[in-house]
Amino acid sequence: MIDPKHGITTNDIIYMPIHLAREILGIEEGKFSDIVLRVDNDLEFEMVEHAIYSKYKNIKLISKERLERLYQNSYDFRSGLFLTLSILGLVVFAFMLYFKYSHTKSSAKKEVGILRALGWSIKEVLKLKLLESFFVASFTFMVAFIAAFVYIYLFDGVFFKDIFLGFENIPVVFDFTPVFEISLFVKLYLLFVTTYCAAVLVPVWRLCITSAKEAMK
Amino acid sequence: MFALLIFGVSATFFVKSSILHQTQNALAMQPEFIVQSIKGGQTQLIDEELIYEFESIFGVNGASGRVYGRYFHPMGEYYFWIVGVDPFDHILVGQIKSLFDEIDMNAFLNNGMIISSGVQEFFKQNHYEKSYNFFYMKEGIKKLISLM
């Protein structure tokens, strides 16, 4: 059996002797599904392409680079659907956080009012709230990021794998190869933590510039 | 909700990165070009003579034909990709050797087949643990033994 660690590209493959494959698929001797070319020198790729296209009509040449791009586009499309939903979720969450501080009877609003009444300057209140939201967001981010890593790579992304890859054909059985990209970590960290801090600081700043009496109402 | 969003987005990126990494590894074993015959926009079978013609092109270090195709399981909408292995095709044999730790080539060439983990799971669910009957394109049935 092909080891599941080789990934999804081998999930539905059956290797068999060529004469049996020909009989089952109805491909007669002297005919092939396609032809593969080995070109060792990268600098000669273009030349080979030109030589084939100039001599042969009705021929389609697919380079390894193009194949890789096709796979990438396919995965980008799938992940794009998930990410669109997640970004929508993030926007909704940011609004919820914003309204928590803007709501007339919220405890957060009263808290800011009390701090202002005690003589805290706008800068001090903003600094406190920035630190508070920064630590809350960073801690939540770390926990959720590590949990996702463990869920996908240790528990093999049960359920999520089926949703992401679909189950219209035979079962998808393969192991994920752990890949950790520091750039991905930084990008997600900045996206989530910045959004969280901004969603807290903007309404807090608005509260700070109103009078303490008004804020505590 | 915030943690759930981070979890979902991170999980999506982890899955994508992992699959992409595996695909890149699989493609690294593939030859540089695939040549297909097209007629009326459709892919057709390609003649063997073209292999020798392509081999004579300056820059091409090797050319070989591949036999593969989609085989639909008769009792449903499920399908497998059948890949024919020519024991003299060094490129494909090399790929297969890299995929399997141990393989009995004699058993394989004598009505054997090597199946993927997805196919194995499908066979297990449908009680084809040891062998599977393939219907020939013309007529007849061929029973192939799964090599574990």
Number of helices of chain A: 8
The span between the termini of chain B is: 45 Å
Spans of at least 5 consecutive residues with low confidence of chain B: none
Multimeric state: heterodimer
Please state the average pLDDT score of chain A: 80
The strand order across the widest sheet of chain B is 6-8-7
| Number of helices, where a helix is a run of at least 4 consecutive DSSP H or I residues of chain B | 5
- Which stretches of chain A are low in confidence, meaning pLDDT under 50 for 5 or more residues running? none
N-C termini distance of chain A:
71 Å
- Helical residue percent band of chain B: 25-40%
**Helical residues, percent of chain A:** 55-70%
- What is Rg of chain B? 20 Å
Instruction: Indicate the radius of gyration of chain A in whole angstroms.
Output: 28 Å
* Interface with most residues: A-B, 101 and 100 residues
Number of DSSP E strands of chain B? 8
Q: Beta-strand level of the residues of chain B, as a percent range?
A: 25-35%
**Class by helix and strand content of chain B?**
alpha+beta
Structural class of chain A: mainly alpha
The main sheet of chain A comes to: none
Record field, number of beta strands of chain A = 4
Describe the structure.
- The complex is a heterodimer of chains A (217) and B (148).
- Helices cover 64% and strands 8% of the residues of chain A.
- With 217 residues, chain A is mainly α.
- In chain A, helix 3 (64-102) runs parallel beside helix 7.
- Chain A is elongated and about 90 Å long.
- The N and C termini of chain A lie far apart (71 Å).
- Chain B has a domain at 66-147.
- Chain B is built from 5 helices and 8 strands, in the order αβββαββααβαββ.
- Chain B has helices at residues 2-28, 49-55, 90-99, 105-109, 117-125, and strands spanning 33-39, 42-44, 46-47, 62-72, 79-85, 112-115, 131-135, 141-146.
- Chain B has a 3-stranded mixed sheet. Chain B has a two-stranded antiparallel ribbon with strand order 1-2. In chain B, strands 4-5 form a two-stranded antiparallel ribbon.
